[in-house]
Amino acid sequence: MNTKRFTRRDFLKGASAGAASLAMAACIPADTAAPASDMPAAEGVTLRFMSRPHSQLAQEVFPDIINDNFTANTDPTISVNVETAASGWADKLVTSMIAGDSVDIFQAWPDIFYVWVAKDLILDIQPYVDRDLTQADLDDFIEAQWTRLRIRGIRVGMPKYIDVRCMAYNKDIFDEYGVAYPSNFGADWDWQEFTAMAEALTQDKDGDGAIDLWGSRIIATSSAEFFGWLRAFGGDYVNPDDDTDCWLDEPTSQEAMNWVYENMWVKEPNPFIRPEDASGTYDDFISGRVAIPWFNVRPAQQAEQVGQEINWDYAHVPSGPVRRNALGDADAWSIWKGSSHPDEAWQFINFLAGPVFQELGTLRSEGSLPIRKSLMGKAVEVYREEFPAVAGQHLEIIPEMMEMGYLENVIWFKDNAAAFELIKPAMERIFNLGDADPSLMIEVCAEVEAYQASLE
Predict the structure, then answer these.
(1) Is the pLDDT of residue 24 over 50?
(2) pLDDT of 301 strictly over 90
(3) What is the CATH topology of the domain spanning 165-327+410-454?
(4) Distances in Å between the alpha carbon of 21 and those of 16, 18, 355, 360?
(5) Whole-number Å distance between alpha carbons of 222 and 200
(6) Secondary structure string (H, E, C) spanning 140-192
(7) pLDDT digits (tens, 9 = 90+) for 437-452
């Protein structure tokens, strides 16, 4: 595989110049922290920052990026102690917050925030946002992320990176069976064309009477992976206007589930691989067992794990009868409500979400997608420069997703955990085992609604 691996020394050679050029390009000073509050920062303030970097390089260079571009340029009285998250970090973090001895800043995502807000552990940063961010700042964030970081009435943090879903396709398999590639990298296809392609690519390659190449893989038992398909048909897990109303019994949701169920369990041969036949997403793709897998856009990871072993590319998710929809997840940096230094912590997470750290930290050292629209074009350039193994792929899908505006996030029930204690086993019966059809969800929804309605 042809991948380019950077060391800490390589990275830091260009970091200072990169930060300067970023600041000039953005027409802002090198730091992007919000103005301090009326109360001056106390001398010698040290923030504890729990980091969960996505690469070894990021783990090594984060302290230098922070020191050179935040501490040095924002307020020399504020220092940041970077602490790498340990195994079991989530449970340990809750314990330390409840005990009153926690890090000031940490990273999590909406499912976790939903629970922790209920425990009153997360600082609402909305007052800081209202005071310090301009409309131009807000417009530069991705709407799906920004919207979903308001949870149970508070804004839980500043976005960290964006995790998005797409499709991928094996060009060699398409060529072998004479199937045309998704038009315009999937920007033009719909669920019917996608299904027809999956059927045409489902094959018994060795003629032994058993299918060994499937058209696609749809993950239907994870709400984060499946809600986009529901919405493409006009459905959802829960009514967006009533968090006690289960929508899996609605005709539109039933139509979406039946489409997957029939292609997985009813049709012979089945064009969507069954969970019992599936391995890992990358393994099935590289080995030629699945032609069009449900995928994510993580070029740094894919340069390493897929690279040039097969002839492949990215594609947009197909549109459904109603619209096109896919996950744009909302990981974020948050502040512990018990922090002794909330103003300084806000300055720091605002820096982390700013253009300087988003390029040097998120994009260049982690290889993750930045959360600012203004950096999406830069992301394509950086991935092609630093990860040659994916330089030939349609990385333009990254800004295209943002422009097309179909990325969204999950909506929760009033008591989401309780709802999914009922929903998940039923979805596993339907899609993992195939011993029930989607009409089972009509009965399950009634149980979910009865419990949700009983909550105060």
Answers:
(1) no
(2) no
(3) D-Maltodextrin-Binding Protein; domain 2 (3.40.190)
(4) 9, 5, 11, 11
(5) 27
(6) HECHHHHHHCEECCEECCEECCCCEEEEEEEHHHHHHCCCCCCHHHHCCCEHH
(7) 999 999 999 999 999 9
